[in-house]
Each structure stands twice: as C-alpha cells, then as structure tokens.
Amino acid sequence: MTAWFDIRRICPAAGFVLFLLTSFAYPAAAADEPKRVMLLHSFGRDFKPWSEYARSIRAELDRQSRWRLDITDHSLVSARSSDEDPEAPFVEYLRALFAKQPLDLIISIGAPAAAFVQRHRQRLFTNTPMVLTAVEQRRVQYSTLTPNDAVVAVWINYFAAIENILRVLPNTKNVTVVVGTSPIERFWKEAIGKESEPLSNRINFSWTDNLSFDELLTQAATLPPQSAIFWELMIVDAAGVVHEGGAPLTRLHAVANAPIFSYDESFFGREIVGGPLLLVADTSRQTAAVAIRILGGEKPGDINTPPVQFARPMFDWREMQRWGISESRLPPGSEIFFRDPTAWERYRMEILAICGVLLAQIALISWLIYENRRRNRAEVLARNSISELTHMNRVATAGELSASIAHEVNQPLTGIVARVSAARRWLAAEKPELDKVRAALDQIEAAGHRASNIVTNVKSMFQRNTQDRSEIDINNLIWTVMDLVYIDLRKHQIELKTEIGDQLPPVLGNRVQLQQVILNLVMNAIDAMRSVQPRVLFIKTALNGRDGVHVSIADTGIGIDPSNLDQIFKPLFTTKEHGMGMGLSICRSIVESHNGRIWVSAGPERGSIFQLVLPMNGRGA
Amino acid sequence: MHSTVEQIVYIVDDDADVREGVSALLQSVGLEVVALSSTIEFLAHKRSDEPSCLILDVRLPGLSGLDFQTELSKAENDIPIIFITGHGDIPMTVKAMKAGAVEFLTKPLREQDLLDAVRLALERDRKRRELQMQTQSLRSRYDSLSDRERHVMRLVCAGLMNKQVAAEIGLSEVTVKVHRHNLMKKLDARSFADLVRMADALRIPRGK
C-alpha cells in the first residue's frame, strides 16, 4: 500500500492506472462478500429423500467453494397439496426477503421445488442463476428453462428397480407400492404403473394412496406370501397426515411381513433390502460442482449435465439374511453392506485365546498320557527284570540245592553199588566168602537207610513253614494274586473274566502255599497264551458239594498235548523251554497236602482248564 | 589180575560208605587196598616201594582233589591218580586229565570202569618204575667211567671220528680207540647206536 501512495504522489497518470486496477480488482474485492445461496426445499427440511440431498449438497458446497457462502433454507409447504393459492404470497415473501440483498444462486431441491421455481421464474429474480437438482428428469419442464437455469436431474429406472425385486426374490407375486396422496406422489404412482407395465403379467401391483398410514401398517403386516413392498414416497397419507423424516419407513419396516425395496440411497441403511439405487453423493457432488461453476461466472444455460442414474446395486446383508436372499442371486457387481461380522471377526481374540488354551491343554494331556505310558512301560520292564531275576535266583538256588542233594545221596549209593559188585565177586569165587558178603549186605542196608534219611531231611527242611494253617477266603486270596499279576495281564493284553461265587466257605489252609498254587496256574495260563489270540483268562470259583470250594482257571492258550495230560503234574516234566518242571508238581503236592485235588482238561474250544477242589477243613497232610 | 605181584591201591575219600565200598570191591578182585579219609593221612602213610595208584575224591574237606594232584606233581610224586566225583563237569575233567590223571569217574562207580582204570593205573606205575630202575642202573655204570672216558664218550656221541677226537683231546688215535672200547664195555653198550641212546637217557650233553 505504501508503494501505491508513492506512485500517486509521483505521477498523476498513475491515478488513472490505479482506477483501472481498482475497477479490475472489484470482483476480487467482491470475493470478500459472501455468496448468497438459497436452498429451496420441496416439502420441508426433513422430508426424505430430499433432506439427505440438501444436507449433502451443503456439505459439498462448503467443501468445493472458494468463497464464503451464506446459505439460507426455505421450504415450499404448498407442495403437500395441489392447492397452488399459497404460492403467490410465498413468492412475494421471497422477493421481499431478498430485495435488498440479491441472491447469487437459487438451488431447488426436489420436483415440487423445481416446478415452483420454473412456474415463478419471471417473478423470482429473473437474473439470479438457478440450479434445479434432486429432480427426476420427467418432472423438469425443459421447454421453459431460461438461460439462467441449470439442471442436475436424476433418472429413476423404475423398471430396473422392480425387476431387481424379481431377480433377488423370483417367486414374488405381489408388490405393494407405498405412495401417498400429494401431487408428486400421485404423479409417481402413475409413472411407476406405466413403467412397470411389462411386468404386470408376473406381478400384481397394489397401491397405498387410498390408505391412512395406520391402515397401511396394518395391511403391510398381513401381506400374502410372496409379497414385496416398494417404497416410493410417503409424504401425505390418505388421512391427510404428513410424514416427515425416516420415521414412516422405520415404522413400516417394524411391522411389514415382506421385504421392502426402494430406489434411493437415502432410504438405505436398515429398512430396505437394496438393489440399484441413486446415490445421494453422486447428485450432491454434481450439484455442488455446477453451483460452483455458476458462482464462478459460467452461464447456467451452458452447463449440461446428464441425469444421474442408478449406481451399482447395494444390498443390506441383514435384510438379505432375513428374507433368505443368497449372495449368488444378487446382480453382478453388487456391494453388500452391514454384513454381520463373522464369529471370527467379532471374537478373534477370544477364539485365539480359547484355541491357545485348548492347545495347551492338549499338549498337557498328551504329555501326561505320554508320561503315564512311559511310567507303565518302565513299571512293566522293572517287573520283568524283577521276575527274571527271581526266576534266575530260583533256578540258581534249585541248581545249588539239587547238586548238593545229588552229592549227598550219591555217596551212600556209590558205597552200595561198589559193595554189590564186591559181594557178587565173593559169591562167584570158588570158595564163596559168605562172611564178607553178609558184611557187605549189612553195610548196603545201612547205606540205603542213610540215603533215605538224607531225602527225608531235605523234605522236612522245605516243609518248615507249611504247617501254619488258617481260615482262608479263597476269593480274597485269588484277588491278592491277581493284584500281583495285573501288570503281566496288561502287558500281554489278556482279558480277565471272573465268575466269583459268593458265600463260599472258608478253607483251612496255608495262605502262602495256596497263593503259590494260584499264582503258578495263572502264570502258566499267561505263558500258554503268549502266541495266540484272543487271550482270555477265565477264573471261576464256586461251592463244591456242601463243604468245599471249586476253583477253575481256564485260558485260551495253546493247550496241552493230550499225550502229556497224565505227565503234566510229574516232577521235572516240562514243556517250556526254560521250565524246571517243578511248578505243577509243587501245586499238586500243595493241593494234596490240603486234602484237595487238582486236575487239568482241555478247554471247550482251545486252551486248558485247571481245576482244583479244596475241602473246607483241609487237614494238613 | 596182578594178584601175584605185590601192588597197592590207595583210596582217599572222606565218606566212609564210599571208601569202604570201593575198598571191598577192589579187595574182592584181590587187590591190596589202603583206605584213607584225607590227603593228610595219605601223605603221612609210609609208602612201600611197589606199583601203586591213588583213587582220589575230587570233593574233599580242605585241599580239593585237583589241588592235591598239583601238590603231588610239584613234589615229583608220580603216583597215577583216578579221580572220583559225585558231579564232575567238563572243565574239571579236562583239568584233571591234562595234569596226568588216569581216569575221571563219576559216582556211583561202574564196577568195570573202576577196575579197568585201576588196572591201567597200576600198569602205568609199574612201567614207570621199570624205566626209573633202568635209568638208575645206567647212571651207576656211567658213574664208574673215568673222566677221560666220559670226555671221549661226549665227543664220540657228538659224531666226531676217532681221529678228530684224538686231535681234540691231544691223544693218539690208538689211545682214543682203547678208551672208547673200555667205556662201551663198562656201560654194557653193544653198539655205537646203543651208546648214543644211553647218552640220551643219561641226558649227557654232546660235544666238548
């Protein structure tokens, strides 16, 4: 600014230049003034779908405008009826309102507003540019448009909209078109009817313009099957009630027993199923763009924008679920909104946590099972080695013992045999030496007795602990033995079956010896089943006669060769590779020392049955 | 049997039945038997100088039969041994037989086995004694040789000619011949080969 003053002082011509500059700069200076824009609503600020357009256009204008904007809203209340009388005073009112501060732009929203401004173009600020927007192209009087008018129209393809219903719900027979009684609603009733004429052979259309909204709700709740509702407009119902905002659609949705379709995005979001829809944003963006161009100085009449058409179809997942519309039915390129988050999306952390816990649990359980198996195996191994050791020990002891006994008995036998030889020679001599023979015989007799004594001593040495007798519950005794062998049974996968007689009389006997008998028979049974399947050990106890106990131990093993049956209880007889042939002979001597009896027979199919009978008062042998 | 020849069978067993029974059997075939209950008794027994053998129980209190066999061998007592045992195993038998046992018999004894073994043992002892006696007489004859004769004998047996012997000792060949004649006569050697055998039996080193 200081530079300008300098110039004015220096040169008078500069004043002229300054004048020019300032006159050119005037529009720039006017930029400081706000651009005045009037939004003219058709019914009011809260009537759908226009309310959504108005809001969106405002937002777009704010976003796109280089200027400060002064936007005022006015509503054409008269559109609710066909009465055009109130229009004239409204026009006057607007004229008065903007007489002093002329408008830069008028934007009419919706068909009634468009019709209004077109009707009153001459009286309503002839020079003020106008944009007719959110208006169906069929509602625009293109012939009366002035050069100051621009149109951002929409094209609602009702045929496509109705066809969409048939596409997603092919069985649809009835379509109820929700429409009120205001002039624009009546217009659309007729237009839709005409446009969907080709579908009338597949669909029965019904209309709601003769119903109050409450009646409409009642009817919507009881629609026949295979019905659909097409939501056009519900501004004024048959009872003359005006419906604002989203409430009517919401109320209808709450009671309707049929899916609701529509044509505009502003109804989309809960109540309608979806389909090809007009996008509010498409129209708003274009309207704002046109408005800005006009505010920027372009002539409205030069701006031609094609009508906004249906965007790609949109569907509401929740409604699809409700009406059983599968995704495959949707037209190609459809977009699905409000899809319920899947369980995975919704509970990812929880699912991961639970899976983690489960995995940890599985790992823990597996580890425990593994440990348990390992322990069992170790137990079996330990037991194996113990039993092996015991066996070795027993064999070794038996070997020592038998060598010792053999030696002891051999001495007198040697003497006897040698003396017999000598005696024979003395008798064979020419002159038999009978005295010597007699002496030899005496010595032979003595040696024989000595041998017998040795045997008796050995026997008594082993019988030291066998004379203790007590009353024994044979079942209890068998279970004690089974406790000892359960690992062997498990190791060899032998199934144990028992048939235990109750109320058996007690047996008077030596507990340890009888345990030895049972253990021996069970171990024999296990050995016999080593190489066969199935492996079943069957133990049975029962009363024998009046005062005895009968025990039967049957196996499904290899059985006993019939030729061996009568030898099997003899000492030193064995069919086992490492057997000593002592087990069964000891069993028999024990059982017999209890005044009992033991015998064996072949099993019914296979294997052998060892049976023993013990009298109640088995007196010691 | 050799009932006419004096010979003795010793039996050592701690069990009286065995000892006496075996004694009776051997006596019944006319053998002289000395029955003893321990090895100590056996060692203490004054042995007469006639063919003999020892029936020895393997299992004895104190020193075992096998160990006693070793002891006897160390003491250069070559009496043939027949082992008897209640339960002989193979290693035991092998050990005994290697150490020169005649037989290893298991109780109770079979008459024939025992008698055969005794006969064999006595025969072996008799032969041993004969050999021993022969060597002793040869030794006494050898002892009667002069030093010069012994020297000549060594050289001759080493294969030297009389001439060479003479040169070696520094005598005339004739003198050597005289010595050689004398020594052969003293030793009762009928030929040169006989002389060499005697030198071997006496374990005379050959050469100078």
Task: Give a description of the structure.
The complex is a heterodimer of chains A (621) and B (208). Chain A is of the alpha/beta class and 621 residues long. Helix content of chain A is 47%, strand content 16%. Chain A has 17 helices and 19 strands. In chain A, the strands form five sheets. A five-stranded parallel sheet of chain A has the order 2-1-3-4-5. Chain A has a five-stranded mixed sheet with strand order 14-16-17-19-18. A four-stranded parallel sheet of chain A has the order 7-6-8-9, covered by helices on one side. In chain A, helix 8 (213-221) packs parallel to helix 9 and helix 13 (348-428) runs antiparallel to helix 14 (434-462). Chain A is rod-shaped and about 185 Å long. Residues 1-8 and 14-30 of chain A have low confidence and may be disordered. Chain B has 208 residues and is of the alpha/beta class. Chain B has nine helices and five strands. In chain B, strands 2-1-3-4-5 form a five-stranded parallel sheet, sandwiched between helices. In chain B, helix 3 (65-74) links the parallel strand 3 and strand 4 (81-85). The chains are: A alpha/beta (621), B alpha/beta (208). Chain A binds chain B through residues 403, 406-407, 410-419, 421-423, 425-426, 436, 440, 443, 447, 450, and chain B through 15-18, 20-22, 24-25, 27-29, 59, 84, 86-87, 107-111, 114.
Total strands of chain A: 19
Please give the largest β-sheet of chain B: 5 strands, parallel
User: Whole-Å distance between the termini of chain A?
Assistant: 145 Å
Series of secondary-structure elements of chain B, N-terminal to C-terminal: EHEHEHEHEHHHHH
Overall pLDDT level of chain A: 85
Order of adjacent strands in the largest pleated sheet of chain B? 2-1-3-4-5
Helix content of chain B: 55-70%
Largest protein-protein interface: A-B, 23 and 22 residues
The class by helix and strand makeup of chain B works out as alpha/beta
Q: Whole-number radius of gyration of chain A?
A: 58 Å
Shape of chain A: rod-shaped
Terminal-residue CA separation of chain B: 50 Å
Number of beta-strand segments of chain B? 5
